[in-house]
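not sure who needs this but someone in the group chat was asking about Tellurite resistance protein TrgA from Salipiger abyssi so here u go. i didnt clean anything up, its just raw.
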Amino acid sequence: MFTAARLVAALCMLVLAYFGSQYIKTLPEESIDFGIFTPVNCVIGFLCGWIIVGPRAGRGTASAVSHGITGVAAMILWGLLVQSVNEMVRLAMRHRYDDPMEAFAAIFEIGIEFSYMLLDTGFFTMMLAGAIVTGLLSETASRNWR
């Protein structure tokens, strides 16, 4: 069902995913072609806001902050999974794997490698602040627009 809280949460998470993606692009020392990294992460952020944070709005301020943190954690995990699968497929097209099980195992290895980039203090602070703002704004939207 369409509600203002879902829309606000989805848009907040989309914006947070955009700025988080732009921040991550500045972290590696070598030049990397990120391709459609930012649009994919924005879609994931929008969906996490719509499905996870938005429906849970309206339960109080403490719950709103908790739901915002849950939504951001889900967004990061889904983003890692999708980007790892994308990288595995790219490497599989270059015949880097001998069999499908090796390619499947590589998804998790790539995800762990990508997660090391996320251990940056600036990124962590941005995501935490964005989670709190997302939760509070969706809670406000839930209370004011029914």
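also Residues 4-25+36-144 form one domain. if thats useful
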